Amino acid sequence: MVLSKENPFYRxxxxxxxxxxxxxxxxxxxxxxxxxxxxxxxxxxxxxxxxQGEQKMHxxxxxxxxxxxxxxxxxxxGLSGGVDSTYVAYLVKKLGLRPLAVxxxxxxxxxxxxxxxxxxVNKLGIDLVTLVVNWREFKDIQLSYLKASVVDIELVxxxxxxxxxxxxxxxxxxxxLISGTNIVTEHIMPPGWLYKKMDFVNLQDxxxxxxxxxxxxxxxxxxxxxLYYSAVLKLSPISILNYVPYNKAEIKKFISNELDxxxxxxxxxxxxxxxFYQAYILPEKFKIDKRKAHLSTLICxxxxxxxxxxxxxxxxxxxxxxxxxxxxYVLKKLSLSEDEFAQIMRAPIHKxxxxxxxxxxxxxxxxxxxxxxxxxxxxxxx
Length: 382
Fold this sequence. Notes:
Layout: H1 35-43, H2 50-67, E1 75-78, H3 83-94, E2 99-105, H4 111-124, E3 127-132, H5 135-148, H6 155-171, E4 176-179, H7 183-186, H8 200-210, H9 223-233, E5 236-239, H10 248-259, H11 272-286, H12 291-300, H13 306-313, H14 320-333, H15 338-346, H16 359-381
Parallel strand pairs: 1-2, 1-4, 2-3, 4-5
Helix pairs in contact: 3-4, 3-10, 5-8, 11-14, 12-13
């Protein structure tokens, strides 16, 4: 359902700023509170702070150090230059861990992102691996997603990042991937606004229908690799920010002072394409404003009030002059004319599920695992 605030069927959550514009999955209770608020409260139980958080961090650090003995690195971290990944880099060094930082250069980095990353690795003394993708291939996949009219165009970058990190973990025999994902600043996100990042079958099918060249170097993570990494290597992802006090505004000030970090002005705006995608393509074509999800999470975690969130949403996503400049840059880089881009923006929207998917393979694998565990329990009892 695509609505507007003027529509009589429009509804906004009584606590958050989530609403039923472009979100068929939202539901409200009798008090007008949406499902995302209750889902956040449930997830919040996994956030440990104070003595509990310190104890969990101490336990994890001891395990990571023990598993990393005799190796050059004991953990892997992604480094985009954004707030979350920057603070993760600071924390792992403070804990005495030996991280290898990974950055994927997909051709869309802002100059500020590059400078932030340089400051972080130099000040913290962290080794960095920058993986530069083949621009022609990457561009061809991005164009495929635009032409396919699916919502999660950022999957093209995210898939390559995850695939690259797993490959490096295998190369350096690293058992732990420490990420900046966290509950208190980014838990809320409607399922229809994203797609499964590791579904390579879906990516392949979209690219085969709309792409123009063979993929020879693009980092991928197919089902075979999923089996290998999860069942054989048993790589363990850790969301370290769920075990420390994490107030977004305070952390921004801290990393600015400690690491000369500079703000981009928006979540994930360290990428020029991400900025254009989130601030223009999503709201114009899909009627999605991701600020609602980000601000609603901050409301739930007590970091801002609803009034502040409402005021933030009243601000334009783009200044007119800035939009004109960014649009010209993006279209030129993607070799799209104004007319071609206009056709893409007008084209009917498709679900990712309209294309092939590996969901059935992963579901079958999980069912097999559950049966195996059940038989082991029965055998152990006997």
